[in-house]
Every structure is written in structure tokens, then in C-alpha cells.
User: Fold this.
Amino acid sequence: MSQTFSMCLVLLLSLLFVQLSAVAQQESAGRRPHVVFFLADDLGWGDVGFHGSEIKTPNIDKLAQAGTELSRFYVMPVCSPTRGALMTGRHPIRLGLQVGVVRPWASHGLPLDERTLPQALKEAGYTTAIVGKWHLGHNDRAYLPTRRGFDHQYGLYNGAHDYFTHLRDGGHDWHRDDQRSDDPGYATELIAAEATRLIAKHDKNKPLFLYIPFNAPHSPIQAPQSYIDRYPQIENKERRIYAGMVTCMDDAIGQVVEQLSKSGFDLNNTLIVFSSDNGGIPRFGSVGQWRGSKGTLYEGGVRSPTVVVWPGQVKAGGKVDEPLHMMDWYPTLLKLAGVDLKQDKPLDGKDAWPTITQGQASPHEHILLNASPFTGALLIDQWKLVWNGQVAANDTALPKQEKWELFNLDNDPREQNNLYAQEAERAAMMKKLLEQYRFEAVAPNIPPNQAPADFKTPEVWGQVP
Assistant:
């Protein structure tokens, strides 16, 4: 065999290998990806290791290393509105969820005429499961997860339930497939066990949407003693327990990701998202360098630690600084799954995939952060307009004196320098836009913050024996 022929053969084989690799990558990209979506509850920006926290989160940190951080990813100031935005791709002002959360004694939830993310994915052949906290309606079975597109449900309906007894306001709030479950154990560990069980038994040839919304580290501040003992250096008792809660959740995330590998899932066709539903609570955790906290419209209340992992599709160790919002996941995931976005109700969310993977600009000309009767905020590029930003999201009255603020987040990320007067023309334009959203909003559902005297837990929860 001549040297020239050998060289040509090597070149031909090399070209063939490159073509086959390209075809394989195209096929992988064209397949409907498995989606595992982790959502923490009340986790602050500064509560993860990759943002410098003293709390140990090695598994979340590994996700950040393996994927891309979305450094300007926005959520709502409390959890039910954020979850509604994720499930529908629509602003909470369209859902009546712009004020507060769905209380245990509330009769409303995510409107029943909304198309949900799991419904749309199920129509495309996905197996859909929620393991964790729902918090989008529970007073009637029509609001429950298995009626809203999930094939399987496990966990709790409300927030702030006891992690060990699973009680909330005297009612039993732990369920499997929307029937009472008496599984004993700490909630976060039960969620991990169920999620890994589902992965282990799943037919890998069928795409999976596994939504894992933890109730951790939301109050009550409770953790297994073994996790609390990992932080003897933290003097404040509540902070020590909180750190244990976060690390327990991190271990749960690690178990789920490990199970994907054990069960032979094609990780090159598996999209993993980690995020938090709202800002943190400085009393227990940390909002990092940002102003504000959960319930407020400053960055500490609405900027979420968020990472996206998909080997071969998303850059490892990358960072996206363009503003995106939780509602964007609805159209983004549906497009990746090959689902038609045409529907009766218009979407507010945008396909964020070109921004995440190709470095394109944010698909938004502006992002509404909220527009309630009492408070509001929106973003245009680096500019942020805030109206009564310190009013807590569950408050149901205007402050005695309204407050308008305008910040340039590029120059003033901590929102200390109010430019509302200096940038009068810009402020007026943004104020008009915010007022338009407030005009468009449906009437908010506002249940009382305290349980009525005659409140009895709904039968659908499963009563205490």
C-alpha cells in the first residue's frame, strides 16, 4: 500500500468520522430531551457554594461547573406567582396570582382554563411527574396536579408545612397521586427517594419531564440532626438549622443526578435546570450583595441563583448575563420538545434557548416583575423601575406614601442611587408601561393572611386520623 494511498485513506476515514459525529450530534439535538427541573423554595442568592456561601452545596456547585449560570434570571417575589409563570408561560397578572401565595384556606388556584407545561409536554409523548411542592390550588380536586397534566404526583400542596409530621394548619398535607400518603420521614429525603424511584423505573426510550420543587429551605426551620451537626461553627441556632436544610436538599439533588447515570439515561440528551422560586430571607440565609429579600421587588427578592446543564448543548462553566424570567421556560422547553406553541391564551414568556446557548441578546424588550394594586416593577435593559418596592408581596394595602425609584443596574447593582428625578423622561416612559400592565391585569385573588375562625382543612388533603 503506497504512502499516498494510506494518507488518503486516513483522510477519508477522518472525514467520515467527522460526518458521522455531526449526524450523531444532530440526531441528539433533534431528539426530545429528558427534562429534570429542580426548584428550591426561599433559597437566597448567597445560599449556594458557587456564590461564596459557607453552606455546603457541592452537588449544586457541580451543576454550575457542568453547565451555564443565568446571572440575571428573574422570578416573582413569592412562590405561587413564580410557579404559575413556570406552568403557563404567562405573567401572574393574567392568572390572578399577582398578590401573595395560595393560602391553605384559599378557594382559588391556577385558573382551570390555562394550558399547563405538563399538559403540553404530555401531549408530545412525555411522561410527566411532580415530586415536591405544588402550591397552585388544593381546595378542589380540579386544581390538583394529576388534573393539571402530571401523570404522577408526590409531596405536598401547601407551603410552610411541618417537615416531619407533614401537617399544615391541622391538616395532613402529604400525597401520592393526589391521594393521602402516610409515608414517614423528613420531607426533603422523601422527595429524593421518590424522584430516584421514578427515574429507576422509567422507560428511557420515552422522554421524561420530572419537576422537583422542594419545599426546602422554606420555614419552618427544621432539619435532621445529622445535618444540623455539620455546622457547629455557626453560632445562631436558626441559621445552623437552615444550613442543614440546604445541605440536605443539595444531597437530594446529588442523589437524583446520580440515579440518572445509574439508570442509563443519556445525559447528552438530558436537560437539568436548577433555580429558586423567589429571593432569600436574610434572617436565616443570604441574598448576597443584593438589596431586599423575599417578598420585595428589589434584586434580593427577585433574582434567583439559576443554572442550566445539557452536555454538548450548553457551555460548561458558562455565564449568561442577559435578563431572563421564569415564564421563559414554558416556551423554551416546549420548543425543545417539538411542541406547537399555538394556543388560545397568548404567551408572555419567550424562547430563551438562543440566549442561553448562542450568546444572543435577551428576547425581551422589557420584563415585568410584577404589577399588583399595591406594588410593581419592570426592567428595560439595565434600567429598573420600582413602585413601592419594599411593600411585602402579601400586603393588601397601599403604603401611606408611595415611592417611585429608578435604578441603573449596570452602574448601581445594589439599587442605592435613585435616578427617578434625574431621568424623568425615561422614568415617565417606564411608568406608563407599568401602568398599562396594571390596567390589563385581572382582579387578584387575595385571601386573608390569617386563617378564618371557621377554617377546616379541605377533605382533598386527607384528614388527620
